[in-house]
Amino acid sequence: KYNEKTGRKLGRITRMEFMDDEEISTKLFLTAESWLREKGMESVHGPLGFTNIDSQGLLIEGFEYLPSIASVYNKPYYGRHFENNGYLKENDWVEFRLTLAGSIPEKAMRLAEVIKKRFGLEVFHFARTEDLTRMAPDVFSLMNKAFSELPYVAPFSGELSGFYIKKYFRILNPDFVVVIKKDGVILAFILGMPSLSRAMQKANGKLFPFGIRHIMKAIRKPEVIDLMLTGVDPEYQAMGLPAILIAELQQVMIRYGVRQVETTGIFESNQKAIQHWKNYEHVQHKRRRCYIKEL
Length: 295
Hints:
Blueprint: H1 2-6, E1 10-12, H2 22-38, E2 43-46, E3 58-61, H3 77-84, E4 88-99, H4 106-119, E5 122-125, H5 129-146, H6 158-168, E6 177-182, E7 185-194, H7 197-203, H8 211-220, E8 224-232, H9 241-256, E9 260-262, E10 266-267, H10 271-277, E11 281-294
């Protein structure tokens, strides 16, 4: 579908794992590239997932930071192997760690209220997973519209949306999901979830008998929130909806006593989104890369 969208013959590398031995990695690359040529592909790029909410990019900066489970991690030598096999940079994502204030400035709250009143916007929070799941198909419809021009994105079919709803939406804490509607139509959303990275480390790969306790504690008493997805209808991007979303989410975080946020990857070319995060105390600490090579 992505090739149909772009009019190109692109193959993808998705997941690769190898020792720091270039003879081994070169054989892996050559085997994958040979298969793609047989399929008529003219270029190969990656690492990319099957969809844009699957695993994407190779970590090239920020190895010293704890990875988010919504992001990727690999050893530093991986990038060298890609480059030594003729792969060049196609696009980079950058990630931020935000520290939010313990209270929302009154000016920001007033501005959010003015925007909501002026444009007739309604903000929705969720108390139950069932309510969130019912809203999920509309969220995917908006994603198809909001992300349509982004690299590597192809539309989600109803079947594929259903797969991801079943996989992810039932484990989201509905408290950390905010939706903005106008006349009953979703214009914007933000999906966050308690970071499980430390809990996964403590569980050491085993849910039972004690690992599940660490994970449940992280969900109930989070210290960090991972931002999974944010989407805004392109026709309404000038309204300042992201500011409303983050202000509403911040109110929930204050209630939970959370001040740290990990963003997922933002294309480095998306300066509008990057400047928004720079309004907060922040550090741009990770960078992921998609490589490309002509076949």
